[in-house]
Structures are given as structure tokens and as C-alpha cells.
Amino acid sequence: MDASRLNRKYRWVVLAVFMGVAGVNQTLWLNFAPLLSQIQRRYDASELLASLLVLCFPLLYVVLSMPAGAMTDRRGYRFTVNLGSLIMTAFACVRIFDASFWTLLAGQIGIAVAQPFIMNGITKLAADWFREDQRAIAAGLGAAGMFIGMAFGLALTPALVAALGLQTAMIVFAAITAGLTAAFLLLARENFPADAEHLRAARSFTAFEEFRHLLRNRALVQVILLAFLALGYFNGLTTWLELILAEKGVSSEDAGLIGGALILGGILGSFALPALSDKIQRRKPFLTFCALAGLALTYPLCTSANLTTLYLSGALLGFFFLPGYALLLAMSEELAGAERAGGAAGALMLAGNLGGVVVVLAMEAVKSDQSGWTPAIYLLLGLLAATLALALSARESFGYRPSG
After folding, report:
1. Cα 262–263–264 angle (5° rounding)?
2. Which of 69-83, 111-125, 166-180, 215-229 has the highest mean pLDDT?
3. What is the pTM of this model?
4. CA 58, CA 144: separation in Å to the nearest integer?
5. If you compute the radius of gyration of the chain from its CA atoms, what whole number of angstroms results?
6. Could you tell me the CA-to-CA distances from 43 to 37, 39, 100, 152, 359 in Å, in that order?
7. CA 392, CA 54: separation in Å to the nearest integer?
């Protein structure tokens, strides 16, 4: 069997083990999201203090995303993902000592530090192992791994804690993390095809220099702004969806299941739409369609009291909107070039996490006693309208060759 054929098959192994570590990172992030009220009672913690178990992830991502992206470009994604996975495993073990809230928070902070070193590797991995007309589906599968991890974190954690107790549940999650980290350490390797030897050269630029270079690329800046708007919208919607639907008389259990339908739709859509984008060899029409679908489906999801409508709207929104994340990742690599794919992913995710923090706070700020969450819903629609306008004016990235 020749080496090229071996490479073509082995890329799926590398992508699969990346999906594993990316997915478990998202699981660990959201372990405590459905347990916040329980955490408050158990440790006598305020709502704000308990929420830091979840909020530390986007906050630290904003700080560490560009340094992690620059390191990915200098040292390669295998080095940074290995580093992030080992840090994640160590701090997942810290959470086993659950006698103190501060120990749990220290564990979450450590896992949050690891997150950008893991997540920023997907575009570099896709550029290394996949042809240009396959990179959106590679990014889509990476995103699907993340969404599956999110679903496990939200759905599996309460059941495990109820059945085993908090400490034993943390042991289970630490063991899963260690197993998936070991799989990546043993099985992941970089391809470095002969026609891309320049990608092996060590880079001397700092994170600041790389960020400054990326910002000179106007087409890439548009994609970064799209990430700010789109991921800000998604974080705002998912953070406050339970309370928005509560105004319509929807129970928290049903709201959780509707959120699960949204994520399940995103998993399926992340397989389908990026693959179709690769087949047609266009990104912009699909990105525009994702924004349009979000604009059409958000209002019924946030205003209906009919459970059938809510489940359907949630699933369709996930299927048609969430694949836009994979498309943005693919576009960032195509516009920045393979040499700077890690930095481009870092800038994209920095903007997305910053957007998430800003929009979550803005939605709570515009909520009123008289109108409830209605002003916040209109804020989400405004963000989607801006996303659609920006997507329509974005450059088609497939086949683009960056200069310099």
C-alpha cells in the first residue's frame, strides 16, 4: 500500500481522535451548567459565584485564544492539542476533590485554559490532512464532535450525579478524559505532504504580530466579525432560552429538551451542509443561507407556546444555523492561508467568545419588567439581520489565495 493511500485513510483516525478530545472538553465545560442551583445549595455560593464554573471558559478564551493560535502555527497542532489535552486531564482530576467549591472552580479554570489549545487546532488539522474541497466537512465533523460533547455535558451530568453522587461522577468524567487524551497522544500525527513542506518551518512571529497581520486581510476581518455576531447570538440564545420560554409557560424540563433538539439538529447539520459546500465548492451561499434560516426560525422559537412548534423550530434552527460555524472555520483557513490557519482560528474564536459575553450581558440589560424578554428577542433578530448583511457582502473564500 503506498503512503498516499495510507494518508488518505489515516486522516479519519486523526480527525476522530481530535473529535474525541474536543468533545470531552465541551462536556467538561457544561458539566455544571444544569447543576448550578444544586451547586449554590451545596456550597452556599451565590448565583454569580456558581456561574463562574461555566463563565470562566469564554472569559479565558478571549485572553488565550491568540497565543494558542500562534503557538499552533509555530509548533503544529499535534503539539498544542497534546498540551491542551494533558492540562485538561490534570484539572479534570482536580475536580474529584469536591469538598470545596474553590477546588471545583480551580479545576474548571484549568480546563478552560486548555480549551483554546485544543479547539484552535481544527483548521490546521484540516489543512494538513484534507484537500481544499474536503476541509469544510472536516471542520464540520470537528464541530459535530463539539456539539456531541455539549449534549453529553447537559444531558448526562444530572443523571450521573443523581445516580452516583458528585464525586463519583467527576471520577467518571476524569477517566473518560484520560482515555480520550491517551488516544490522541498515541494515534494523532501530522501529515506534512511533500507539496507543503513550507508548513513545517518554525515561525518566529508573536501572537500580537500574527493578529496584526491577520487584521490587514479585509476579507478575513469580515469573517471574524461574522463570528462575533453569529456566536454571540448563539451564546445569548442558549444562555437565556429557558427564561425566555418560561414567559410562555414552558417548563424548564421542556426548555432543556428543546435546547437538546437544537444541538442534535446542529450535529446532523454539521455533517450535511459542509459536505454539500465542499461538493459545490462554494462557501458564501451556504453561509448566507445559515444566517437567513436563523432569522426565519428564531422568532417562532422564542415566542411560541406550542411545544410542537418549539421542538421543530429548535431542531431546524440547529440543523441550518449551527453548520455556519464549520463554514466560518473553513473560510478563515482559506482566507488566511494554511501557514496562519491556527492564528486565524484563534482570532475567529476570540471574536466568537467575546461576542458571547457581550450579547449575554446585553440581553439581560435590555430585559425589562414591563416587556420581559421581548427587547432581548429583538436584539437577537437585529444581530441576525446584521449577520445576513455581512454574509451577503463577504468574499467567496473557496479557491482564494492570500498574498503575503
Report:
1. 95
2. 166-180
3. 0.81
4. 19
5. 20
6. 10, 6, 7, 24, 29
7. 34
